[in-house]
Amino acid sequence: MAKARSALRSCPVAAFQKMIAGKYKLRIVWDLKDGPRRYGEIRSGLLRGAVGSAEITPRVLSRELKALTESGLIDRRDFGVVPPKVEYRLTRKGKSFVPVIAAIRDWGERNLSEPAALADAAE
Amino acid sequence: MAKARSALRSCPVAAFQKMIAGKYKLRIVWDLKDGPRRYGEIRSGLLRGAVGSAEITPRVLSRELKALTESGLIDRRDFGVVPPKVEYRLTRKGKSFVPVIAAIRDWGERNLSEPAALADAAE
DNA sequence: CAGCATCCTGCGTGATACTG
DNA sequence: CAGTATCACGCAGGATGCTG
Questions:
Q1: Mean pLDDT, rounded, of chain A
Q2: Residue A6 within a domain
Q3: Residue B10 is assigned to a structural domain of this protein
Q4: DSSP state of B98
Q5: How many domains does chain A have?
Q6: A 21-40 residues with CB < 8 A to B
Q7: How many CB atoms lie within 10 A of CB A14?
Q8: Which residues of B touch A9 (CB under 8 A)?
Q9: Long-range CB contacts (< 8 A, 24+ apart) of B1-6?
Q10: B9 within some domain
């Protein structure tokens, strides 16, 4: 079975965790599910849902986007114009990953959101 | 809609990320799906799948277990005997989370494991 | 507009040693 | 056996400023 082979490496879960490491990767992918978006749009989009304290620094966003690109989840498209215009879109692989995030969101909406908030508040 | 309310806080995805933060939490929950396990068993179980370099230090494992307990995913049962015997088991909430991990594993097995390994190897 | 360069800080994680 | 205590370190991630 092919299963045993891949399971050895470090199990899919660990690979998954590496892939989505970082605070924004999941949200970026989720945001891109509706179609291509420009750098600034993604940045703005990430602010929705933030509690309102911190901005996402270009350095961080840039890193995440690059990592996602190297993971093969998203694709970077540079229009090579001035002023710069760059779009990011999901790859095939990225699209196939959307349902997984959907499952996460779905579970999170009914199990986290509020009850888990006290675990935070307690801290 | 209740959706908007919970979505505001920081979106389910962020809450999810906080909940499973740490290298072992997902694997612990996954490991516990087959039934209760003792501290030492969990520790040994985590070594399967590790590339073989590092041990899991008690400090780290202890923290993860405590965090998972406070998240309400697992339940700690101390038998109060000597030598100590402590079992960890999934709660209802924890069990409901297993399918999500299954989805992750499933996706990971067909999309990561090897092709994504080069992203690692490159590093 | 879409980044990159530099500095700085907190925390997650590993190593080691000790205890009820 | 099932942890806790202490030390140390790398790195994610925020702040600020610059550029093509």
A1: 85
A2: no
A3: no
A4: H
A5: 1
A6: 23, 26-27, 30
A7: 19
A8: 49, 51, 113-114, 117
A9: B3/A109, B6/A109, B6/A113, B6/A114
A10: no
The Cα–Cα gap between A47 and B15 comes to 15
Which residue has 């995030």 as its token pair?
A101
CATH number, domain of A73, equals 1.10.10.10
Select the residue of B11, B49, B108 nearest A16 (Cβ to Cβ): B108
Q: What is the pTM of this model?
A: 0.86
**One-letter identity of residue A24:** Y
Under 8 Å CB-to-CB from A45, ≥6 apart: which residues? A27, A31, A37
CB contacts of A99 in chain B (<8 Å) are: 103
Cis-peptide into B83, omega within 30 deg? yes
Task: With beta carbons less than 8 A apart as the criterion, state whether B90 and B74 touch.
Answer: yes
Q: What range defines the domain where residue B28 resides?
A: 23-122
Span of A79-88, B2-11, B28-37 with lowest mean pLDDT: B2-11
**B26-72 residue pLDDT tens:** 999 999 999 999 999 999 998 876 655 567 999 999 999 999 999 99
* CA dihedral sign, ordered A92, A94, A95, A99: positive
Q: How close A84 gets to chain B, by Cα (Å)?
A: 28
Domain membership flag for residue B33: yes
Q: Percent of chain A having pLDDT more than 70?
A: 78
Determine the residue of chain A that is closest to B7 in CA distance: A49
Per-residue model confidence as pLDDT tens digits over A35-80: 999 999 999 999 876 655 568 999 999 999 999 999 999 999 999 9
